[in-house]
């Protein structure tokens, strides 16, 4: 195609096209983003200070951030964070491994796919929080109780994606591989796994997010340890700024996990994306 | 000054006394990128008279699409003007329609063929009965009467492009811009579509600017062929195609004059690629 | 595949599993796992009748209202944010942060601000379930095909018409994916909000059963939640297949090629 690749494609912003179609538009998005964060914090601070919202329900931004800085120096805080991260990691690893193995096996066999389809579609939408009473019954208020939830929820996310991935192998590539005499193992190694990898990465990404949600949920409702439990304790003990500070912490953990998973995804798919780019050029 | 000289040498051509519909003067486009400014198009100047079918050819990367987008009002030039019937083009004008190369991405997958063709008319405020008639006429003109209720993705590539053409035809524009519309279809379909364009053109009397990289196609279709130079682009030559008005794939393409013209354009393109074609 | 074969595939594994469960639970009396018989009886006794009206319906109603609101809000805000580049750049970091907060932690916060009542439960669902829809809508609106947009401009499609006929349909598949995730989160929050601070509702009742060791009843509650989850999923898929029939048709064709 015509390689006017440096041309900014029609971005489809507000209807009447502006005269200035210069490439670098007014304000860089990084600056705007920082402005957004600053604006939010300022608004938060003002809303509370002006008396719009009572500080006992919503402490000012400065109070919460100060509290966060303060508890971040305590050992108990980091113990809780460590507990949460351990639960998350174990849950994701177990569910991920199981889902990848099962997904590859089921996905490669048309019979298995068909036979398990109804069961998967039935079990999948069951909210894992429904298992909370069972988890408590079986494991009390230990890490395993929460792990039960995490593994159940994350497993389906990864499994579904792996099944998509295996099912998306290019039939032409498959025929080519067969005609060159590649056996099953070779095909999995050179064809199926690389084709499915983007989907596996998507599954890991979704699974990681769900795993965190269920980890915190389990800690919150069941107890046992971790940031979620600390939040529940803070709430019942009336330590409002601490509660908010811990909520902010969960957000930061979530962002950190997102970034980590995206970095892993980029690395794992590096060859994949660059192969794609080459094909387009 | 760019190659306007060639138009003077044209023979008794219906276009010479027709009014100028599209006027491009000194069109220049500079892109600013991280590595500095890139002058994609330096100076394009040419006219399109009412009812002409003009083809635009040039080496890859010469800015054909940039030019077309500027004319279509989708892109602002750095300097120079585009005028449609004397009015400057700053946004997509009402009397202009575009047929893109990527028909799959230009047609709306959630609408049937009929709805796709009807949409611009609806937006323009045409009445229901009038619209129905216009859509049927347009679909008949491109030979897709039977496919009105289908979805674009149910049709072949060639048929999809016909839908895009029908949509443009029903819109009854003064000027029709076509950006390498047949580049993505197979050769047999391309031949059919080329003939379709000539038929539609003659029936409607619309002015067509047809961008292509296919030299044979440009000579077969056009009354005039504008050859563009390499980037930074100017009009390298404005060639009049003095083939008979009645053309068909078999006889026209085997005429000696066709071969001559074709060879000439080919030479010009080679010169353009080497960068020796541009006569400052 | 014939209807017989299709049915066989659909019920084969489930029936086998149930048969296995029945066989295993016959001889031993496991405290944790009831027999199929016990479970079925418990299910009918517990949920069909009074409790359906006092616990199940209100819970489902809160879920429906909360998730519905979240979807509408998410799409409306998403369209706006996705269309205006400045707003998007401004809000992007904040949105990334807020979406990373696990929704259930909103329960203690909202209990604090609103109190432990119905309004809180609905608000929790709204605030928690809005994120997938919002973010997917933003992404869908932002990444409309450039050729599509050029075509729209060429033919004079602007404003509300362009939104209705080009942008929303084009973004619809992505928005649908977001809605699906929102439904799942909404269901989770419905249960959590009731487990955490409530005196009625499905979540509360199931926890009550667990605490009083009414095991078959507890299991029946889990099964009921599962059935609700499946019902919501089926309903969603039915709607999605209808609205996005063109999208699935297109994918089928592309895959076939």
How would you describe this protein?
The complex is a heterotrimer of chains A (281), B (280) and C (257). Chain A has helices at 29-49, 61-71, 75-108, 110-123, 132-139, 143-167, 171-179, 184-221, 226-236, 240-268, 270-280. Chain A has 281 residues and is mostly helical. Chain A has a single domain (58-280), classed as MetI-like (MetI-like fold, Orthogonal Bundle). Mean pLDDT of chain A is 84; it is low at 1-24 and 277-281. Chain B is α/β, with parallel strands linked by helices and 280 residues long. Chain B is built from 10 helices and 10 strands. Chain B has helices spanning 5-8, 64-71, 103-106, 113-123, 128-141, 157-170, 187-204, 215-221, 249-253, 256-274; strands at residues 20-33, 36-49, 53-57, 79-84, 87-88, 96-99, 175-179, 207-211, 224-228, 233-240. In chain B, β9 and β10 form a beta hairpin. Chain C is built from 11 helices and no strands. Chain C is mainly alpha-helical and 257 residues long. In chain C, α3 runs parallel beside α6. Chain C starts with a helix and ends with a helix. At the A-C interface, α1, α4, α5, α8 and α9 of A face α1, α4, α5, α7 and α8 of C.
Separate helix tally of chain A: 11
* SS-based class of chain C: mainly alpha
Q: Compute the number of structural domains of chain C.
A: 2
**Level of helix content of chain C?**
over 70%
Count of β-strands of chain A: 0
Largest interface: A-C, 70 and 68 residues
Uncertain runs of chain A: 1-24, 277-281
- N-to-C SSE string of chain C, H for helix and E for strand: HHHHHHHHHHH
Helix coverage percent of residues of chain A? over 70%
H-E string of chain A: HHHHHHHHHHH
The oligomeric state of the chains shown is heterotrimer
Tags for this model:
heterotrimer; A: 281 residues; mainly alpha; MetI-like fold; 0% strand; disordered N terminus; disordered C terminus; C: 257 residues; 2 domains; flat
